[in-house]
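tool_call: predict_structure(chain=1)
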Amino acid sequence: MTKNNRIIYGLILILGIAAPFLFPGFKLQISFMWLLVVLALTWDVQGGQMGYNSFGNILFFGIGMYVCAGVQIGMFFPLAEWTASGGEETFVHTPTQYFQGFFIGLILSGIVPGIVAALIGYGVLGLRGQYFAICTLGLGIAAGEIAGGIELIGAGQGMTSPPWPKNIGSLELRSQFFYYLCFALMAATFLFLKYAYQTRFGLVLNAIRDNEDKAEAMGIHTMRYKITGWIVSACFLGVAGGLMGNMVGYIEPVEIAFAGATFGVFMVLMAILGGKGTLWGPVIGAIAFHIFKEGFWTFFLGWQYVALGALIVIIVVFFPEGIMGWLRERYPDKFGETVDESDIKAQVELK
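tool_result:
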């Protein structure tokens, strides 16, 4: 790692830790921003690095949301009775129950979506191009409809997630707790993918994107790497969903958990805006998109989706390669790709 990179990472770490104190009125919005960064980074594993444009990654986000809340409730109370009675008004978690259920649920919210990705991977990732995109879109839509028909998890009316225990602190403490968890998840996702992209795994994903048939002809088991990439995305997305469900406090199948029309589209736009196929592109795109979105909802309420549509047109027309692509074209000496020892070693291993 170069000196400049260490300085950048250090500044981001300091800013991330200090943000709740520097911007106390925007703590919730910044927490959501870190989760959006996770959504953009994980989508870019398929859409950018591997060249498989997925519209169904929201599937893992929603599964993680339901798994986390379901475990939190089911460990201590009958889940069916919770959803039927409104939950939080009838059953009350002690602080010990709340945190035990939350952290176990959060772990499982990463594991279960990963298992689902592995199980459906061979069937879905055998498709290419528009067929893969349409299939994944159908998965997200179908998941929302299926969840809306399961009475155990509230069906179409949704379910509440366990509320913050009243006897362990104020809502201010709750917001700080979830803020740092969101920031930690974003940092873990970024660092893991940064490491993974410098290994054979990253090179194979790029080889699949450039020419999958040639990669297979070279003896590379492309399906194995495609499924592994999807599992990685599913695990991080599931944890993000678990956090989102607890932060919102209410889980509805179509508009919140499997919200393909919002979060499912947002993760694609954020990666493209920043520059898909790059490490920093999804991060920059998610932050810029979140700022734009909050501004639209503040100043163009009622016209916010028109403004978002205009943003999409601007991205396609003026930033087809994203912000990172534009910066590399204008300032290649500062933002151009560099080759270090780890890249050379990975290329040698691939050959």
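agent: The mean pLDDT is 88. Proceeding to next step.
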